[in-house]
Amino acid sequence: MNLQNTNKIMAKSNIHITNINRLLKDVKSDVLADFMYVDGKGMVITTNKVTANLNLNIIKKYIKNVNNINMNKVLSPRLSQSKSYLKILGISYYIKDINLLVIADIIERVIQTTHIFNNTVLTSQPHIIKASPKSDMTVICVNIWDSKSGSKTKSIINRCFNIRCHIATVQETNINPGIPQCKNCWK
Q1: What are phi and psi of 58, to 5 degrees?
Q2: What predicted TM-score, i.e. pTM, was given to this entire model?
Q3: How far, CA to CA in Å, does 145 sit from each of 75, 122, 148?
Q4: Domains in the chain, please, with CATH?
Q5: Measuring CA to CA, how many Å separate 54 from each of 51, 152, 184?
Q6: pLDDT in tens, 12-62
Q7: Do 81 and 148 form a contact (C-beta atoms < 8 A)?
């Protein structure tokens, strides 16, 4: 949310908290909004309990309906998140018939259009590492935003999907290897 929208909402924060709590009570939720404040990334609304997606959607709908708010600048509310580290195996280093190297942009498009990655947000660009000098296969390291419980990661781990004629598999990894060192990256 941009600064102008945030200032408009914060000027009447007590009214907005009251209205949000009324809407939550209407759906028989036991979650209540306590207060709102602004941090470096936007506006934060704290609640008395961990909220469910239904409650988040009610808050989002309310904020988007506040008068004089530029709705294009309102981001979806979300729970606290952590990074999960995944690796994708089974993708060729060269795109068949074109002899073009697999690049991060291609992997990002594949992730955006593959059903197992629905509602998945990357935390950084994927890292593509050639498996070995003699192999044409890659290891693709992907970092995603996930809930503290890891529910997105659990739904993706050990799932397979097709990329052209290859079957790719998603596996969990303990760490982000970051940008590969020269000795681990072959061309």
Answers
A1: -65, -45
A2: 0.54
A3: 15, 6, 9
A4: 3-73 (no CATH), 81-184 (3.30.70)
A5: 8, 18, 46
A6: 888 989 999 999 999 999 999 998 887 766 778 888 887 777 888 888 888
A7: yes
